[in-house]
Amino acid sequence: MVTIGDVARAAGVSRSTASYALSGKRTISAEVRQRVNDAVVELGYTANAGARALATSKTMVIGLLAQFHEDEFAPAMLQYMLGVSDAARELGYDILLVTEADGARALGRITDSRMVDGVVLLNVAEDDPRLSTLRAAPQPGALVGLPGNCSGLDVFDLDFEEAGRTMVDHMYRLGHRELILVSQPEHVVERGGAYVWRLQNAALEQASLRGVRLHAVFGDSKQPAVGRLLNDLLDTHPEATGLLLNNEAAAAALPSVLHARGLSAPADLSVIGRYSDEFARTFSLPFSSIESAPDRLGRMAIRQLVRRIESPEARKQPHVVRLVSPELVDRRSTAAPPT
Amino acid sequence: MVTIGDVARAAGVSRSTASYALSGKRTISAEVRQRVNDAVVELGYTANAGARALATSKTMVIGLLAQFHEDEFAPAMLQYMLGVSDAARELGYDILLVTEADGARALGRITDSRMVDGVVLLNVAEDDPRLSTLRAAPQPGALVGLPGNCSGLDVFDLDFEEAGRTMVDHMYRLGHRELILVSQPEHVVERGGAYVWRLQNAALEQASLRGVRLHAVFGDSKQPAVGRLLNDLLDTHPEATGLLLNNEAAAAALPSVLHARGLSAPADLSVIGRYSDEFARTFSLPFSSIESAPDRLGRMAIRQLVRRIESPEARKQPHVVRLVSPELVDRRSTAAPPT
DNA sequence: CTGAAAGCGCTTACAG
DNA sequence: CTGAAAGCGCTTACAG
């Protein structure tokens, strides 16, 4: 392999001069710089990442801890991963992808061995076992997902409580007085998926404040169970005029359920989902929805993480918890209830 | 950070002895080994990955080059990624995930800088620009997807030609004599997605051999266009009794199309898709399908890659092209055509 | 504006 | 069975 020593020799300078010429960390005569650059091109030199990491204590790699659970809708996770990956690359970082079931152990492995300069955790649970490992690690970390205890961590998430209130209020203003909310499966909640009950509780509270009847249930994450559930709900609550979905699988199943019942939105039923625009386009979901903004959240997490990685002052600043305000993307699936 | 020097001092031995005690590469007295292990635990030592990589020229990291195109169904790619990631971890390797649009440049970057010991390329095109970079790299690589020229590369893919023949023959044996095949969008073909025409051409050939009429078309990759296309096809070819789908989006759209037309499989129409079982479960697709086996292909690629990485002899062995025989998963969506 | 040297934290021949 | 030393390929104070 061609080393910086080879480049230095070819350019007729010392290794340190070659290094400085490439990094630009001290002034180099134009002529020498040219000779070094020529040698780099001629020899096809690229710095050895391991050697550089050893010398600088920087790897330019960020760990991405993804977590796939059987009962969650995997395609939704992909959006977050791509947001993080793209944002990291723009800032000069590569991504070490970790998908192990035992996330805490994997996190310890990559931080202890200094494979990464920092870490992003996806799908963070209320009492996430990875957090104590992260707090003990020397590298900074950023979370996508709001845990019960945020101390010492930078946290980014959709404001699910506000999302729940927005859904209810939007329907209320249109005149709806009886609604159904389909959340994620109860398993997700039991595992600590706090966003589920954050949205649900806020929606219930807002409904009671507005005098709206809200039937909240946990849905399945797979077909055909979730389709049956939707049918059952519509049978059980014939007075309900609006449907709120915090459940990707339910949203994906709804078009055929409505079609089968001869219903259409918003003429017969108003519908609001909670998913990303990318998701809506992939499955052509015709429902207005609270944008879950996976790419935006991924970018925010990376930006804050890189700030902490690269600046010693930023490292000491107080940690942030940023809840993105929900945005309702109007796809014309809500209207005044049928009279 | 705690180094092997700290461990050595705490154990009262030299650094080399500490290193050997941990690697087991030479015999160490039980007592010394114990002292070293105790010191490791007490101090919480983990070897620095960069330093080890520099000393051994091994990073224990494999690069995973994923490629997301606007007009392809992203969730399908995730399955391959997870297969590769899980298999790599079982063999002791971590995954560097690369999602850049310019795959050839990204590949050069991670191989030139020796960030990885080897590389897996996903979604390989007929004339993939990444291949020349890979051939020039010092690290071995494995492909998932069959390019036009396999020389010097280990290649793993589904046998799409056999898949096309299997689909046709299965229908033929049941008595079908007129079929429709919906392939991926034409864009995918133009970009070099050879698997599309490999399946399609083989299906056409087999059909003509059997005296079966086969209407082959390129489909869209998104709703609602793909749904409209399916409807058009069924209108245009009322005599067709079987539907073959080499297009995930079409498979996902079909249930509601059939429902809307008051048709059911296999009573009115026999259907065979081509997708993974995981995909079928996520979307509860009730159609028999050729299993695309993304996890299996990912595992095969990783196993071969690691063999080449770890054994100098394996490094020199001839390269392999392994086409997995298609397996038809029966979900009871095919039968004799209606009379 | 440039060079010689030390050091990052490992592993592994070389010696005993 | 163990140790002292060299070396992996960089970067960066230290000196001039």
Protein architecture, described:
Chain A is α/β, with parallel strands linked by helices. Chain A folds into three domains: 4-47, no CATH class; 61-158 and 294-324, Rossmann fold (3-Layer(aba) Sandwich); 160-291, Rossmann fold, CATH 3.40.50.2300. In chain A, 48% of the residues lie in helices and 16% in strands. The first copy, chain A, contains 15 helices and twelve strands. Chain A has helices at 4-11, 15-23, 30-43, 49-56, 74-90, 103-112, 130-136, 160-174, 186-190, 194-210, 225-236, 248-261, 277-282, 294-310, 312-316; strands at 61-65, 94-98, 118-121, 141-144, 154-158, 178-183, 213-218, 242-245, 270-275, 288-291, 321-324, 328-329. In chain A, the strands form two sheets. The first copy, chain A, has a six-stranded parallel sheet with strand order 2-1-3-4-5-11, with helices on both faces. The longest helix of chain A has 17 residues, at 74-90. Chains A and B meet through α4, α5, β2, α6 and α12 of A and α4, α5, β2, α6 and α12 of B. Chain A binds a DNA duplex (16 and 16 nucleotides) through residues 1, 3-5, 13-17, 19-20, 23, 25-29, 32, 47-48, 50-57.
